[in-house]
Amino acid sequence: MSDKALFAGYFKELYAVAQQGDAREESFYPALAAMLKATADATDRKHVRVTTLPKPTDAGNPDFRLWNGTDRIVGYVEAKKPTEVRLDTVEDSEQLTVPMSPKEEEIKTDSPTNASSTPARNPRQG
């Protein structure tokens, strides 16, 4: 399947769900999960599995978890309704902030040069 066909199908499904008029964020999850899996398959990553609404983890409570099918998490996805206008307001929110590991917290606490008192980091900022 070509990239164009893959995404055309995804956008068509998003449009169909949105046209119902009563869709919540979760209403779009099946289309996104299918697109993520189709993308993995199309890029020779057939082993990648997509879990919708996985149990909470150290990384928080993501909408999707991508994993290698056995023992390694490949990534997390936090989804928003396609009609969400201001995604930049979500970017720095607590929802996308990952708690520090005990080791990161220990390093931060022992570091005299780190004046930050925020016990979390934004994964988008490294």
Short description:
This protein is α+β, with helices and mostly antiparallel strands and about 130 residues long. It has helices at about 5-20, 30-40, 90, 100-110; strands spanning about 50, 65, 75, 100, 120. The strands form 2 sheets. It has a 3-stranded antiparallel beta sheet, covered by helices on one side. Strands 4-5 form a two-stranded antiparallel sheet.
Strand percentage lies at 5-15%
> How many beta strands in the DSSP annotation?
5
Order of helices and strands: HHEEEHEHE
Task: Round the Cα radius of gyration to an integer and report it.
Answer: 18 Å
Q: Runs with pLDDT <50, length 5+? A: 111-126
Helix-strand makeup class: alpha+beta
| Overall 3D form | globular
Give the neighbour order of strands across the main sheet. Answer: 1-2-3
Can you summarize the main beta sheet? 3 strands, antiparallel
* Terminal residue distance: 34 Å
Helix content: 25-40%
Mean pLDDT: 79
- Give the count of helical stretches: 4
Word description of this protein:
- The protein has 126 residues and is an alpha+beta fold.
- The protein has a domain at 3-84.
- Helices cover 35% and strands 13% of the residues.
- The protein contains 4 helices and 5 strands.
- It has helices at residues 3-19, 29-42, 88-91, 102-110; strands at 49-52, 64-67, 73-77, 98-99, 120-121.
- The strands form 2 sheets. Strands 1-2-3 form a 3-stranded antiparallel sheet, covered by helices on one side. Strands 4-5 form a two-stranded antiparallel ribbon.
- Helix 1 packs antiparallel against helix 2 (29-42).
- The longest helix is centred in the first third of the chain and has 17 residues, at 3-19.
- It starts with a helix and ends in a 5-residue tail after the last strand.
- The model is unreliable at 111-126 (pLDDT under 50).
